[in-house]
Amino acid sequence: MVEKLSEGIGRKFIWAEISFLALWWSSDATDKDKAIFTNLVKSGKIEIVTGGWVMNDEANSHWLAIIKQLTTGHQWLIDNIGYVPKNAWSIDPFGYSSSQPYLLKLAGLENSVIQRVHYRVKKELASNKQLEFHWRQLWDGIGKTDMFTHMMPFYSYDVPHSCGPDPAICCQFDFKRLPGNGVTCPWGKAPRKIFEKNVEERARTILDQWRKKAQLYRTNVLMFPLGDDFRYDRANEWDNQYQNYEILIDFINNNDAWNAEVQFGTLEDYFKAVHAEVKASDFPVLSGDFFTYADRNQHYWSGYYTSRPFYKNMDRVLLAYVRAAEIISSQATSSGAVSQMMSLQLRDRVEQARRALALFQHHDGVTGTSRDEVREDYAKKMLTAIKYSQSAIQQAAYYLLNQPLIVDQAQDDIYFDVDDIWRVHDEIPTRITIALDVVSPSRRIVLYNALAFKRHEIFTVLVSSPHVEVFDPEGNPMMAQISPVVTGDKRLAFAANKYQLSFPVTLDPLALTVYTVSLRDSTRLNKYTSYSHVRVYNADYWTVDLPKMFPIEQPAARLMEDITVQAGNSTRVVATMDGLIKAIVSPQGATMPVHMDFSQYDSQRGKDNNSGAYLFIPTGPATDYKASAFPEIVVTEGIYKATMYAALNSPKAADIILAVSIVGK
Fold this sequence. Notes:
The model has no long low-confidence stretch (mean pLDDT 94). Helices cover 28% and strands 20% of the residues. It has a 5-stranded mixed beta sheet. It has a 5-stranded mixed beta sheet with strand order 8-10-14-13-16, with no helix packed on it. It has a 5-stranded mixed beta sheet with strand order 18-17-25-26-27, with no helix packed on it. Strand 21 (581-585) and strand 22 (591-593) form a beta hairpin. It is α/β, with parallel strands linked by helices. It has helices spanning 18-27, 31-42, 63-80, 99-106, 119-127, 167-170, 199-214, 235-253, 267-277, 309-334, 340-360, 372-400; strands spanning 13-15, 46-48, 87-90, 111-114, 132-136, 147-151, 285-287, 433-434, 442-449, 455-463, 468-471, 477-478, 480-487, 493-507, 511-519, 529-531, 533-537, 552-553, 563-566, 572-575, 581-585, 591-593, 599-600, 623-624, 632-637, 641-648, 656-663. The longest helix has 29 residues, at 372-400. The protein has 3 domains: 4-303, Glycoside hydrolase 38, N terminal domain (7-stranded beta/alpha barrel), CATH 3.20.110.10; 308-400, Up-down Bundle (Substrate Binding Domain Of Dnak, Chain:A, Domain 2); 433-663, Immunoglobulin-like, CATH 2.60.40.1180.
């Protein structure tokens, strides 16, 4: 790129995703390469479009994660090139959220290009020359949030579907597909090298496609993107594309009778020309989003809303960790609680975690649509990022609490155990069971509130003994609830030597709060500890082996009526005999009916109609999930927390372990 753009006259290029640019910059680029690239950007021969770390998904990504990936890319550009993008390029996400242009507008971007919109929506907009519009937020009555948007009109963003309405003709002008380059045109007509004898015929042919495409827009300015996936990675492609188009451009521009002027350009060049020709008020205003995307037939791209849900959840966990790590690290640094060296270590770990989060916002990352080896790479990066964030949080917390300095400290020193253990990238994390015994009879629990408001919550940890008591930050004993831990994947059971300890906590904004859990004498009365009431249904064959302080009901008869679940005097949940929620009753007696069930779809298995990571194409309407009668149900009720567990089993479908918790005040 740095070599080929300097050849010829008027060559230009756009670059979107900063993660790849940063990788080249740090691993392969020489100082000379960096200087040439920077000059190409500042001279306008290269335009950085959007400037995000990736081209993010817009359906699954959290708005805060979108902002983080955008600011991560923009910060890199400012630090390394001194550049701020003005135009957005989002051609591959599978549908578009109205939140994206709003965030881009706030980031200072002025125009955008989108592509993957339902084909019937495109057809409607094209028929009215409305493919360019002001994208406005629904609440905006004056246009303050308007993002000028160009929608590509055809099936794809590749060359065959970009120069005009006939892909068989357009493909002949993708010179990457010249014979011998390993890529062909599926319509049977290969591109031909442009030379003096065929330039007029070839120029007439492509100009005809351009004129037809131009009829779909309101201006005489036309954009023809010349690229595709996995392109411009070989020198001969740069030569084939630019050299052949340079001949076509020279011929067209020197033929005044054709009344056309062609040039290589960037988005900035295109939008500048559009706005110079037609005033802004002549373009329509559109509000709303572009979901759900379909590219043809009934191929609705909603499968990716739920593909690989484990990693979608991992993404949200990482987002929370990165945000907390950013805030507490900055607090530790600004307060002088850590040394300059530690401050730099915290900064670097948080930055690496932020970049991993940003990377996963890619439209083939959080969507769950990447190849398996790519999915594994994403997952391992997120696992490392979670551990980096946890490390930064616990080390910053240690020094903010004015703990003693650690001699010869290392980055991987453990200051506090974080109660969220991620061992491998493809397993559900586990929680710590706080072991209390005569050797270690007391443990401190440090809670960090990363939010900017005070929180009052019921907090739950796992402990090894039911004989415990809790002390508040001032050292006063406080009420707490002990409940048995219910486990199982198909059948329910009580975990041995493991209990839930629940108690109310009050956390000031952006602050650390310390509570203490201590082992107590089991023979001594304790008015501050309350034990859950336990009910076991449809499991008279169980031998319930719980400490005697837990009141237990275990009816021998099968459950034939509704049951209620309540924590203290809080909201009651009414459940059916099958363990499904039927109603919610407020403390004041107001009843809200609820219908809860599970449904399942079967997917089509046709030659061209397969459901998968991208598409959701069921064989028909959903069918009810039929679980076996009389499921095992366990209810634990206490002063602060109540939970109903139900083991829904179906030999012909899935096994579902349902847990519904109610938390009191």
